[in-house]
Amino acid sequence: MTASTVETHPSMDLVVNGLIVAPVLSGGSGAGAPDFVKKLYRMLEEKDHDPIVSWGRAGETFVVKEPNEFAKAILPKHFKHNNFASFVRQLNKYDFHKIKITEDSAKPYGDQAWEFQHPKFQVGKHELLEDIKRKTPNNKKLNPATAASPEDHMAVPDDYQTQVDQLLKTQADMQEELTQCKSKLDTQSRLMRNILKKLGYQSLDDGSVVSVHGKGSDSRDKSIKLTLSSKHSRSHGSNSKSRPEQISESHSPPLITSSMPMLPISSSSVSSSPTPFGVNGATSDFFNGTSSMVTSTPFSHPFVCPDPSLGAPVFTLGQLTTKKQDFSSKRPKLSAGKAAIRRSVTQKMSGERSSSDLSQAFPPTSSEDDNEGSNPIWSMPPRVLLVEDDDICRRLSTRFLQLLGCPFDVAEDGVAAVGKMSQQKYDIVLMDIMMPKLDGVSATTQIRQFDAMTPIISMTSNTTPNDIMNYFANGMNDILAKPFSNGSLLKMLEKHCQHLRHIKLGPGLLEDNNSISRSGEQQADRMFGGVGSGQGGMEFSMNYNGNNQGQNQNNRHNQNNQNNRMGMSLGLGGMLMLSNENPSSYPGGLKHGLDSNDDGNYDFGLADMSYDEMMDQMERFAATTQQQHSDHSAASSLSPDQIHHRSLHSQNNNTNNNSNNSNNSNNTPYSPLSLSPSQQYSPQQQHHPIRHPMPSSIPTPPSSNSSSMTLSIATSAAMGQGYDSGVMAYTPGFGHSQQQQQHHQQNFAHGNLPLSIKQEGGGYGPTFSPHHHPQNHLHHHQQHS
Amino acid sequence: MLELVVHRRTAELKGLDADDRATDSGTETDPDEYDNVDSIIDHTTFDQLLDLDDEDHTFTRGLVDRYFDQAKKTFIEMESAIASKNYPELSRLGHFFKGSSAALGLTKIKDSCEKLLQHLGNLKDTVAAKPISLSEDETVIRELLEQMRKEYEQVETFLKLFYDGEQ
């Protein structure tokens, strides 16, 4: 190479051996080639370096033949470092490309050689050096070597943009949802506040609720203060309060649903007394004294459930009580009584259960709360199918369901209902009776052909005994008389969806069938787990007086016809259920004063009784009722798997579990544990038969004109309520002729009693499989008629 | 207690002192004062509806409006059913109307519907035996319908006041 003069641009340092530093460098952009490039070029000019680095054969590339030497000796000279990797990086930066050495290609420069290429870096083409620029996003575009990048570059922003858009949209959606949730929450709290206001109570800062004006009776006040000083007063203040809430010890905040800010009422008021038997006297007192108030009482179904962690009671309220005075006065008692009874029973039973079982049965409350912060009634709201042709009634019901947080479907007539049932599973069906195209009863019959389990509740204004029997005969589980109150609707839901309830019980108590756990198996275990297991089946019979034909003169059911005081006896495998009995009238202490006559002093004597004693009592009672049955010929068509047998009880029933009156001596509408042999018994009780099997045909209508049919209905403890909701279950056969009875017994049509519990997970609870229903018992039963 | 609310509202309707309205705690008004109102509507039921409401009663208002529409339509259809002696249809309509009225606590209308239905039921039984009575029955039916209409108008007035008064 010839040295030549170089015009040097003042800004450039161009001392190149043997290379013309092209004026291009100076005349160009003025910036000249990057220093690195220049140095590179200079380096390559040095012939001395040739063994280590030199131009490539064609002069279009340069080759580093000995990277090690290169790095050691040459790099420092020109680049002030000895790091080959850095050098390569720099090359990359300036868009040099390494020429790949493939397996097959010749290795003209040696095995370790690195060959780099840049279109603007050519031997003798000093002028082009200037064009070598760092790879930048802009340059990428210009630089054909990086032709791929323009698209990428274009694409990347687009991608980002799309993502951003999506994010924004998602955010907007979430925002909207949040707003909706907030508004729902607001609605509910407003409602609560309103109700409280109307009730004349204010919630104070400390969480207690006090009466604003001393309205109502003292008893109410006392309860309202929510001082659970005695075991009796516990639940009720909560009863009077608004929406479902959980009352628990102050140190159990998780139990208080966060969405009910007003209702940590309990916290300050829950007394330390750990007795599990909370609901009783006070409750009844409360309701007795304030029946007018109770009319507006919203959810007030107290379940006293001790807080597992604290041994303090946790109350879950879940009932709207907006009935007229007499009813409301009864219902709360009922529920109170039932709850208490349940508790006492379970308490009784609990002794034989390991606490570990219990703890299994009760999943940690916090999770429940977390999940259902805004819906303390249900651990999982029941899916409801509403079948109703009248728009107004539909709207009413759906509104209510909405407020309850229950997902629902609507069918406008029987045909649609059958269709929907065949496609989806629901937890409960509310079926109007009078409908075009296909009426409720026929629809039920059809449905029962493929679905025996889902509770179907008939909503109707026709509640004559014949009608009722017809409903049950065709597979309906319960009756909700129209027009129904919000409270009764809620009760119906609660009753038939026990397994979905949100109940927490303390470890010391057996769970009340309202187990939080939805596991059917668990429930089944408890049900059938033997004497000590959970709830013994509790059964009680209820009076239903169809036409008030005087046989049961005290039969309150007459007036309550519409109001459904019947309890359903869904003996869940041996669960003892004490119905609302007049405590005082019940010897042996089976008192669950769900009786309007009750003065509110519930002494749940169950606690004092052992299971066996209870069973004995029930049996005695059953024997009594059997005799009674034989005296009457009321026929009834019973709904299938309802464990009901009709026992002719008068209002005085309960008193006489032991007494033997042909006169239906039950005072209360609900006779206590009427365990007739036909009733359900825990399978473990050998001598106690299980429920009737499920019949299939429609029973003959009641033959007699006897109106006073007493239904002995056993309800599982789980059910615990529903007396007011017109649940009537008839056990066919009592008082029938033997044939009739038999016939009837075959006719237990359908599947699920309200209380029956499916054995599936999340099901209804233990179901009684037919083989649990020893036919002999039925026959036995028949003998008595 | 909700009676309180209702009383308060009826007080509003009657143009009582705004103060009475304003106080939440409200003095307990004498229920007897509103006897006439009570008889049209069963407040216990109606109050429940209000329970379901939001503060501005959108839900029940809508429901009531829907009821008005339904009622008007029903009356027309009933008329035509009577004219065409289509008693089964009339029965169905009656039942329908009874249901909605009962749901809203409009007891008087409900009772009239019941009477009508009973009558129709009797008709069914007797029509074969006494064809002559048809015209008599028709008279009776028409009377019942008229009564129902009047009661409905009362209800309509009351409810309209009720909701408009809320403004």
Structural features:
heterodimer, A: 785 residues, five-stranded parallel β-sheet, four-stranded antiparallel β-sheet, 18 strands, 35% helix, rod-shaped, disordered C terminus, B: 167 residues, mainly alpha, 0% strand, HPt domain-containing protein (chain B)
- The radius of gyration of chain A is 41 Å
Overall average residue pLDDT of chain A: 58
What value does the average pLDDT of chain B take?
A: 72
Give the overall shape of chain A, derived from the CA principal axes: rod-shaped
Q: Give the oligomer, counting copies of the same chain as homo and different chains as hetero.
A: heterodimer
Largest sheet of chain A: 5 strands, parallel
Please tally the helical runs of chain B, counting DSSP H or I stretches of 4 or more residues.
8
Class by SSE composition of chain A: alpha+beta
Helix content of chain B: over 70%
Low-confidence stretches of chain B: 13-36
Distance between the termini of chain A: 130 Å
| Beta-strand content of chain A | 5-15%
Task: Specify the overall morphology of chain B.
Answer: elongated
Beta strand % of chain B: under 5%
How helical, in percent, are the residues of chain A? 25-40%
State the helix count of chain A.
24
How would you characterize this protein structure?
The complex is a heterodimer of chains A (785) and B (167). By secondary structure, chain A is an alpha+beta fold. Chain A has 24 helices and 18 strands. Chain A is 35% helix and 9% strand. In chain A, strand 12 (428-432), helix 17 and strand 13 form a beta-alpha-beta unit. The longest helix of chain A has 52 residues, at 148-199. The N and C termini of chain A lie far apart (130 Å). The relative contact order of chain A is 0.09. Residues 20-30, 139-147, 214-374, 508-607 and 629-785 of chain A have low confidence and may be disordered. Chain B is 78% helix and 0% strand. Chains A and B meet through helix 6 and helix 15 of A and helix 1, helix 4, helix 5 and helix 6 of B. Chain B: This is HPt domain-containing protein. Chain B: Keywords: Phosphoprotein.
